[in-house]
Amino acid sequence: MPIGSEMSLFFTQSSGNLANRYWCLIILCLVVLEMQIASSALIMSLRNHHKKQHNRRPMLQANQSTCALFVGTWVKDDTYPLYESSNCPFIDPQFNCQMYGRPDSDYLKYRWQPLNCELPRFNGLEFLEKMRGKTVMFVGDSLGRNQYESLICIILAGVPATTSTQMSRGEPVSIFKFLDYGISIVYYKAPYLVDIDVVQGKRILKLEDISGNGNAWRNADVLLFNTGHWWIHQGGEQGWDYMESGGTYYKDMDRLVALEKGLRTWANWIDSNIDSSSTRVFFQSISPTHYDPSEWSGVATGVASTKNCYGETTPMSGTVNPREYPDQMRVVDDVITDMHNPAYLLDITMLSQLRKDCHPSIYSGDLSPEQRANPYRSADCSHWCLPGLPDTWNQLFYTALLF
């Protein structure tokens, strides 16, 4: 082959190799760039996910691991309950199941077990020492009162009988004081959180006004809010005649829309009036009811063996209730996520859904003998026995507050 032809072939091959290398380099750069973009997108996605979920699933450092407080299972524990109803005279008849004839007691023997850690056992003396001089206020509906009375009973079970206390019951405020420690445990009844006024004999639920109720909350050191059940009441159980929003009065509106309006009014008030550096704010998620037995029995066939929670004596098994996460909780999640200083969400909904066995049913001092004789019409499957499930709510509250 002539020298010129060899040189031409050499340069042709070299040029081809250089071109191939050039395109390989470009492709490599594009791959690296795409990976960086994808990585950045993933990081941003995780950050956004963490930001959005921070209050959905609060986390706790415990036993050298990250503990998801609200994901776990119920386990039998014979060291429970944390107190006896006979030793706590402050339990309302509505919640005092043992006093009013509940024949079984195994429902008292369950402890909440998070998946990867142990909850600290409630220590009444430690609570009083760490909260000395402070006011803890529960704000909301009767589920808040359920939890308020539970907290009083748990603390009393862990302190000497000589501890000085004082109780005053009122409407809308009830106060229990541990005088030796300067601590006040308060319940403030506000089923909707926002204000409800009476105008010309009509009850007006003011979806964008909370100033009346809010003035009572300003000086608390710890605030724990709840709402939900009263927003879905109908007919004679409905707590209002008109809703007011934007100066317009409504006989009714989509209840989730109304709930969101009310919660955003609450959230804006918290952000504008509460100093998060000195006041801790918690929101208790929606407490489930157990009026529909298809949630736990006859799921496959659609045939239930019972008509409500009456006669239920054991929890559902497993870690997840097949029932869908309530729509009300999706509203709560969205509102809290959008807060400037988000409240800490005590997400007790799913763990409580497993406890179909913990309601007063017919074992309530609020029922007549005739009502007790008709459990399928009269059973209370909304509130909870004391001792019982609200003690676990308070154990989670205690953990989130002090650890």
Please explain how this structure is put together:
It is a single chain. The chain has 403 residues and is α/β, with parallel strands linked by helices. It has one domain: SGNH hydrolase (Rossmann fold), CATH 3.40.50. It is built from 10 helices and 15 strands. Strand 1 and strand 2 (65-68) form a beta hairpin. Helix 2 (124-130) crosses helix 3 (142-157) and helix 5 (255-273) runs parallel beside helix 6 (327-337). The protein is globular, with a radius of gyration of 28 Å. Residues 66-118 form the Trichome birefringence-like N-terminal domain. Residues 119-399 form the Trichome birefringence-like C-terminal domain. Belongs to the PC-esterase family. TBL subfamily. Keywords: Membrane, Signal-anchor, Transmembrane, Transmembrane helix.
Question: Can you give keywords for this protein?
Answer:
403 residues; alpha/beta; Rossmann fold; 7-stranded mixed beta sheet; 4-stranded mixed beta sheet; 15 strands; 33% helix; 17% strand; disordered N terminus; TBL; signal-anchor; transmembrane helix; Trichome birefringence-like N-terminal domain-containing protein; TBL_C
